[in-house]
Amino acid sequence: MKNSQLYLIITQLGTIEHRSLGQFVRSPYHNRRPELITFCDLLIKSAQTKEQIPNTREYYFGKIFTDKPYDDKKMRYTISFLNKLVKSFLAIEQLKEDPISEQRLVAKAFRKKGLSNSYEKEIQSCLKLLEKKPFRNPQYYLDNYLIIYEDYEAFFKSRTSSLKIGKILPKLNQSADIYMIATTLKLGCSWLSLRSKEQPEQYQLLLQKILDLIEDQEHYRQFPVVELYYYAYRMLTVTQNESYFKNFKSLIEQHQSAFSIGELSELYVLAINHCIKQANLGNRSYLKELFEIYKKGLDAQVFFDNGEMASVTYINIAQSGLSQEAYDWVLDFIETNKVFLKNSLRKEYYLYNLANYHNRKGNYDQVMEILRTTTFDETMLELAARRMLLKIYFELNETDALYSLFDSFKNYIYRHKEVGYAKNNYLNLIKYAKKLMDINSRDKKAVARLTEEITQTQAVVEKAWLLERVKGLGR
């Protein structure tokens, strides 16, 4: 029972929603089965108290239908009825958060009942409500289309005014066009971000037609939602033309108020991924661009979800600032934003970022003090921390500590299966760091062989650092 969809839904509701659901199932309008009230109360109590109750249908059946023998068919029907009721509750709760859709449905009901005057007032109120919304994202044009379509239905079916229909159709057409164009471009960007799959050909054909249309008809670029996703797609596909990225970056800042935080976050992620890809291809100037985008995103608060910052984002932003040697800014960011991490992750991600900060500053004593006394639960953090220590011990010529780390690092990798594909990368780092320690720097052939071996090995982290150290052997 605890693995059923019904129970999982109820466990995800908050205390206020539990109370509202209890009132909902008690309403005769929504529910005329008293056994569903008892069943719902039992599930809510279990979800709130986390009490260990028997995970069987028989247990619930005995509580709902007292003094009756277990009937599996009846219990399944009861689960199905309550499941449907809970879904109706969730749908109504969502409608409360979408007053435009709610008012449009009221207008639709008036139209169907032939209440033309009431319909007209309601549809105009609906349009005014939409215009008050600050966002001009694809959803705005979809809402606009659905509202105007009600007007089209009202006048087309009655055929009372061809003049009225003539005024409605251009508005309807424009909203449909902008929604379709913007959404197709947005989906094209999503396919590119997916990486693992290529967009199917039938969707590419429509996308190419839309790109040609936008370039041929500049009229469409007056709509920020079209212009932004156009430049986003071009930025991701025509990477050698930096003007697309520059225009996209400028447009994000210019039209921030036209998008919800969620959609704005997606746009920033597109820019971030582009910068990372370009930097990885060797265009180091994009590291500065990446840092600037992170700073602008922080100002726009796009990296927060319900008041929390993702731990990976916390590390990536700090790393980006360190790449630009913005040490004071990074330290302030680390301290200020640690409170936005999940409680369970806060300490270790904060300590890792602090250690990384001191490492880049060359404060090795502070780094070693943090890392020697900290064991990270997150595997990738622990790997990164050991990697950091390895480089520090090497630079400080801490031979005993380094050889001890080689052994413990290797044991850690073999013990933790979740290292996965990164296993060989880290084992090769240990292998070549050890060879660096053991090699005779005067043996030019041995140095050349080691250089070639590291160069030819694909799966190795810190390859640039290793090659730089091999190069330093001959100095």
Overall description:
Strand 1 and strand 2 (308-309) form a beta hairpin. This protein is mainly alpha-helical and 475 residues long. Among the domains are: 5-96, no CATH class; 99-178, no CATH class. Helices cover 75% and strands 1% of the residues. Helix 21 packs parallel to helix 23. The protein has 23 helices and 2 strands. The radius of gyration is 30 Å and the shape is globular. The model has no long low-confidence stretch (mean pLDDT 91).
What secondary-structure arrangement, pairings included, does this model have?
Layout: H1 5-11, H2 15-25, H3 34-49, H4 57-64, H5 72-96, H6 99-112, H7 116-132, H8 138-158, H9 162-194, H10 201-216, H11 224-237, H12 242-254, H13 261-280, H14 285-299, E1 304-305, E2 308-309, H15 311-323, H16 327-337, H17 343-361, H18 364-372, H19 379-395, H20 399-415, H21 423-438, H22 444-456, H23 463-473
Antiparallel strand pairs: 1-2
List the helices and strands in order: HHHHHHHHHHHHHHEEHHHHHHHHH
Radius of gyration, in angstroms, nearest whole number: 30 Å
Strand order of the largest sheet: 1-2
Largest sheet: 2 strands, antiparallel
How large is the count of helical segments? Answer: 23
| Percent in helix | over 70%
Secondary structure tally: strands? 2
Estimated share of beta-strand residues: under 5%
Stretches where pLDDT is under 50 for at least 5 consecutive residues are: none
